[in-house]
Structures are given as C-alpha cells and as structure tokens.
Amino acid sequence: MKTRAAVVEGPGQPFRLSELQIDEPRSDEILVRVKAVGLCHTDITMKMMLPEEMFPRVFGHEGAGVVEAVGADVRGVKVGDHVVMSFRSCRECERCQAGAVGYCRQAMALNYLGYRSDGSTTFHRDGAAVAGSFFGQSSFSELAIASPDNVVVVDPDVDLSTAAPFGCGFQTGAGAVLNTIDPDQASSLVIYGAGAVGLSAVAAARARRVQTILAVDTKDSRLEAAAGLGAVGVNPSELPDGSFVERIRELTGGGATAGVDTTAVPQVIKQAVRALAPRGTLVVVGLGAPEIELDAVDLMQNGKIVRGCIEGDSDPKTMIPELLGMYRAGDLPLGSLVTTYRFDQINEAVEDVEAGRVVKPVLVL
C-alpha cells in the first residue's frame, strides 16, 4: 500500500513529505488511517539526537484516527473504531504486570529502534527500508501500523484533533500530577516550563483543587496561558539575579510541596530542588541534558526527592479514557492549547512551537 509520510532523511534535517510503501498489518497489528497527530518536543529532539544510521525515519507518536484493518489475532479493536495511539509496552514483563507499563523491559526496542522485533520495518521506499514504529506507530503518515497494546478506542464523537495529544504530551503532564505526585488541596505545586506538558500539569493540579499553583517560563504568552488555567505566572528573566529561589519560596509559603520540571535544563532543575520545602518532591519529565548537578547536602538534610517519570506513570489503556472524560466534563480544559496545521505545514508548526507562538501544534490529515 502507498502512504504519504513526513520523512526525516538524516540527523537535524527537516521533515519532508514523501510517498512510501507501508506493509499490510500482520496478524497481531492494526492499520490506522491517521486523522490528526500532535507534534511533540520528543519528535523534534529525537530527530536531532539519533545517529545517522537510524535514518531515514518517520516520527510521530501522538496519532489519532480510524481503524482501517486489523490482523486475525487482534481482539478488542475492529475496523471503523476511532482510536488514540500511545506508547508500546509488552504487557508481559514483571513491570508491566505491576502496572508500570511505561517502564517495560522492552520499552527501548518497542518504541525507539525503528523496526519490528524481527528486524523488519513497516515502511519502504524504492525497495529500501525506512525506519518507523516510533512509539509503535510513526504517525506522521497518512497510514500507520500500530498494535493492540498501544491503541485506545474512543467514542466516535470525540474530536480527534484534540484527543491526539492525550497519547503523550497531555498524558505526561497530567499524569505526573495525578499519578506521581497525587497532591491534596493544601499542596503547593510549581511547574517549570509552560509548554503543552507543563500546562497539562497545571490543568490537572487545578482539577485537584491544589491551593497554590505556579508556572515558571520566560515567555509571557505561555504564562498567560497558564494564568487562564489557574496558575500564578513567574518569569525568571524579570527577577533580580539570584532571587528566583527566594521568590518561589515566598509564593509557596516557605517552599513548594512538589514541582514538575519539563525543561530538562540542568540549572532550572537545580533551582527547582532548592525551591522545594523539606521532604518535597521534584518530578523530572523533560528530555534533554544527560547530566544535572544537585546540592547533596540540601537533598539529604531536607529529605527531598528527585525522581524521573515516563508518560506520567500512566497506563494509556486507563489513563487516556480518564483524561478524555475529565476534558469532556470541563475539568481539564486543554483544547484551548491546540493549534491545527495541515500536514504539509509540519515544518511551520515546528518553527511556531519552538518560537513560543503556539503551545500544542496538531497536524490534521
């Protein structure tokens, strides 16, 4: 079968629309006609970070669409179903069995390497393999091959352009608050980075009626969006040098109960830990710098916790329906963050989100 996909030919290169051949779904696979797909920071970061030998490649991991075909062994998904696609997990290892599907032992192979477990790719061009299977979908394509473990059936009346980002970005931010931190109303929560993930965390904190919610960003447009979701904005660039941590402590009554870092900037993380109250927790969800420096004395003497978090510690099978239910009830107003683009405007969408002109770009096919 033919499909049109946004292909990255090499590290750091732009997305280019190209006609590819896509396999028919195997017995344990699902073919989805993609209707909308979110552009996530991970797509942009990974196309810069991966080595030359892992290209050409199709990214995209926040796909939503309509099932076009299912393999003979697939259960629970049928042709015509509307679905949101998320990350893959084996569902069999001890971590998956314990509910920690984001930490699956097979996570790297299933989500990042670019091919099936037998070494084959789902895409080809002129007889040559094109890497796909990104998060088990590679949904920057009109057609995508997915699996039962990363496909979530949703109601047909759900707007797929709004639902698509729940597959990763919205799930990550909201899940970090609802699952990992699990705050009560008396908590104080600081979100570092007010992009799509950070603002999802803000919205989830407001849904939990957290008393004090701060959003930290250097872009006023992002802080305005955070204010619309119920947070107090803090722009570090407008504060005197060396006063940022004290400002956070002042606004949180002595230090934050918890924080969520979406920036992956080492200096931001270091300051975020310093701004915690004793026994406070910082949850790190950003992908970026591989090393950070922390004050070990502060960490130990004040009983602080710094922990990583994949996909909001969520199981998409239960989390995506829960979050969409909150969205439809008005408790998670994330639709306002979405700006739609045509598929052929993908590079424009990248430029706009990196410049801070939009929060969550979604490509509509």
The number of E-state strands comes to: 18
The CATH C-level class name of the largest domain? Alpha Beta
Distance between the termini: 17 Å
Largest sheet: 7 strands, mixed
Specify the overall morphology: globular
What is the tally of helical segments? 12
Calculate Rg over CA atoms: 20 Å
Mean pLDDT: 97
Order of helices and strands: EEEHEEEHHEEEEHHEHEHEHEHEHEHEHE
Tell me the fraction of residues in β-strands, as a range: 25-35%
The named CATH superfamily of the largest domain: Medium-chain alcohol dehydrogenases, catalytic domain
Our count of domains comes out at 2
- Output the structural class: alpha/beta
CATH architecture annotation name of the largest domain: Alpha-Beta Complex
CATH fold type of the largest domain: Quinone Oxidoreductase, Chain A, domain 1
Task: Summarize the amount of helix as a percent range.
Answer: 25-40%
Low-pLDDT residue spans:
none
